Amino acid sequence: MTVASLQVPVIAIDGPTASGKGTVAHRVAQALGWEVLDSGALYRLTALAVQQQGIDPNDENAVAQAAYGLDVKFQGERVLLSGVDVADQIRHESVGNLASKIAAYVPLRLALLERQRAFQQAPGLVADGRDMGTVVFPEAPLKIFLVADVQARAKRRCKQLKEKGFSANLDDLLEDMRSRDLRDRTRANAPLVAAADAKTVDSSNLSIDETVKVVLDFWSGVGFRAV
Ligand code: C5P
């Protein structure tokens, strides 16, 4: 156990794509005055770097090297990759699909591990991803597994993409989402699975406000004290 893991609390929020994790994580972090880690963005940034640098996406070691070399800064809504804001670009479905494919690579997951743990800074961290509670922050005092049915998630993603000015087709998104879920859940390394001590929250019929409240109520019940 590291000193950080004992002193700086982490709320891990894991779940499938478009379950609302990102928004909920940001809102919970805002309410508590904590930092936030969007770990999916790191996989997406690696995918974008692979595309931009013409790296063979099947070459696991070359992809991991790209991750070690990422020059990333998160500044509010902005995500800077080598000084260029790519916040919208990394949300593109082609980047998300490549991220999901390369996320199965063991060398890549190792390459991103310490980068993710470095976000654990006082007064606390809300970490959003697939393996926050199982692999990256296994000592997190609160672990949430946020789910929503695939139809609800595809509709949300469709709306998000259209709002960002991208074209989107609900049937294509549903198909993409099903295959991405399957890949995330069945990969051998760090699959998408609830930690044994996670609280599962189904947000299919909850608003963002209601979901945030559920998480904050769980946190109040934890009674965390730094040692
Ligand atoms: O969460 P988001 O959809 O942005 O993540 C993009 C992809 O990165 C996911 O489909 C998943 O395969 C991968 N990912 C992961 N582990 C994480 C976060 C994301 O494997 N902690």
Describe the structure.
With 227 residues, this protein is α/β, with parallel strands linked by helices. Helix content is 50%, strand content 15%. It has helices at 3-7, 21-32, 39-53, 60-68, 93-102, 106-117, 132-136, 150-163, 170-186, 208-222, and strands at residues 10-14, 35-38, 72-75, 78-81, 84-85, 125-129, 142-147, 199-202. The strands form two sheets. A five-stranded parallel beta sheet has the order 2-6-1-7-8. Helix 2 packs across helix 10, helix 4 packs parallel to helix 6 and helix 8 packs across helix 9 (170-186). The model has no long low-confidence stretch (mean pLDDT 93). Cytidine-5'-monophosphate (C5P) is lined by residues 17, 39-40, 43-44, 96, 99-100, 103, 129-131, 180, 184. Cytidine-5'-monophosphate is lined by residues 17, 39-40, 43-44, 96, 99-100, 103, 129-131, 180, 184.
Give the tags.
five-stranded parallel beta sheet, three-stranded antiparallel beta sheet, alpha/beta, binds cytidine-5'-monophosphate, 227 residues, Rossmann fold, 50% helix
